[in-house]
Amino acid sequence: MEEGDTPEETTLLLIEEVRVEASTALEQVHTTANTVIGQVNAAIGQLAAESIRSGQDSPIGLEPVSNQGPIRCRHVLGGIIRDYYREVA
Fold first, then answer.
1. Is 67 among the domain residues?
2. Is-contact 71 87, C-beta < 8 A?
3. Burial of 33 (0-12, 13-18, 19+ CB in 10 A)
4. In this predicted structure, what is the pLDDT of residue 60?
5. Could you give the 3-state DSSP secondary structure of residue 57?
6. The model's pTM
7. Going by DSSP bridges, is the β-strand pair 81-86/71-76 parallel, antiparallel, or unpaired?
8. Residues 48-68 pLDDT 10s
C-alpha cells in the first residue's frame, strides 16, 4: 500500500494479502492432515501386523462384496477422504 492509493485500491490490496495468508494456512492444514493420516495408517498397519503375528483375527469381520451395481463415492472427514462402495443392485 502506498500513500497515493485510493480506498478501493487499498481494500483490494488488503483482500489479496488475506487471500495469500489464508491460502498459506490452508496448505499448512493440508500438510498436517496428510501427516496425521499417514501416522494413523502406519499405526493401523502395525496393529494389524501384531494381530496377525499373534494369531488373532480382526474383531471387524469382512462383509460380503457384491460385484453388481453402480459404484458410488461418499466423502468422509469433511471431504478429505473419498470412500468408494458398490451400491446394491
1. yes
2. yes
3. middle
4. 65
5. coil
6. 0.46
7. antiparallel
8. 788 777 776 666 666 666 677
